[in-house]
Amino acid sequence: MSAHLRVLSAGPAMSIQDLGREGHLAFGLTRGGAADRLALFEGAALLGQPAECATIEMVGMGGTFEATADTIIALTGARMAATLDGAPMVWNASHTLPAGAKLVIGGAQTGTYGYLHIAGGFDTPLYMGARATHLTAQIGAVLKTGDDIAFRPSTPARSGYFLLPDTRFQGGAVRVTPSFQSEHFSQETRNRFCQTTFRRDPRSNRQGVRMDADAPGFYAEGGLSIVSEVITTGDIQVAGDGAPYVLMCESQTTGGYPRIGTVIPSDLPKVAQAPVGTVIEFEFISHDTAIEIEKRIRNEIKTLSSRAQPLVRDPHDIPDLLAYQLISGTVSATADPFAS
Question: Are strands 172-177 and 259-263 parallel, antiparallel or unpaired?
Answer without folding.
Answer: antiparallel
